[in-house]
Amino acid sequence: MQYQEQTPVYTPYPTELPPAFPIGFHQTAPLVNVTELQAHLRLLGAISRLKFDVQSQRSGIAARGTKDMAWVVFVNRAVFRFFTWVGASWQRSRPGFDETMIPPLDVLMVWHTIREHTSRTVNAWSQSMQQIFAL
Fold it and tell me: What top-level branch of life does the organism fall under (predicted)?
């Protein structure tokens, strides 16, 4: 018996999200827009490329040990660098956050990971740091 259905037809890359998504028995409005979604996917792509680069090194831990060990060491250093970045004293001549304050990709990776956790985790972390940081 042969497959009777037609192959799916793909439309051009979407530029708009639908007005609502079915979640359970409810219709939920999108929480992000297409531009934010694209930026998030680019960030995830950059992190994936970073991991590949770290694990592909011809010298250092990746060459002497395992690729996984190289990534573990890299991530631990990134966590240390994140705490250093968070603890830095920022000059607040202007309110808000601008491009001069964007951290390096490894620090951004750790920040993204923290943001993906619940607010309860972030609040506990902020209290342990004895500062309030708008993550």
Answer: Eukaryota
Which tens digits make up the pLDDT trace of 88-125? Answer: 766 655 566 667 778 899 999 998 988 887 666 666 76
* Of 62, 83, 84, 64, nearest in space to 73 by CA: 62
The residue written with tokens 């990776």 in the block is: 109
Express each pLDDT in 27-74 by its tens digit: 999 988 989 999 999 999 999 999 999 998 888 776 777 888 899 999
State both tokens at 20: 């609502």
SS (H, E, C) the chain: CCCCCCCCCCCCCCCCCCCCEEECCEEECCCCCHHHHHHHHHHHHHHHHHHHHHHCCCCCHHHHCCHHHHHHHHHHHHHHHHHHHHHCCCCCCCCCCCHHHCCCHHHHHHHHHHHCCCHHHHHHHHHHCCCCCCC
Domain ranges of the chain: 29-128
Gap between the Cα atoms of 123 and 129, Å rounded: 10
Contact 75, 67 (CB under 8 A): no
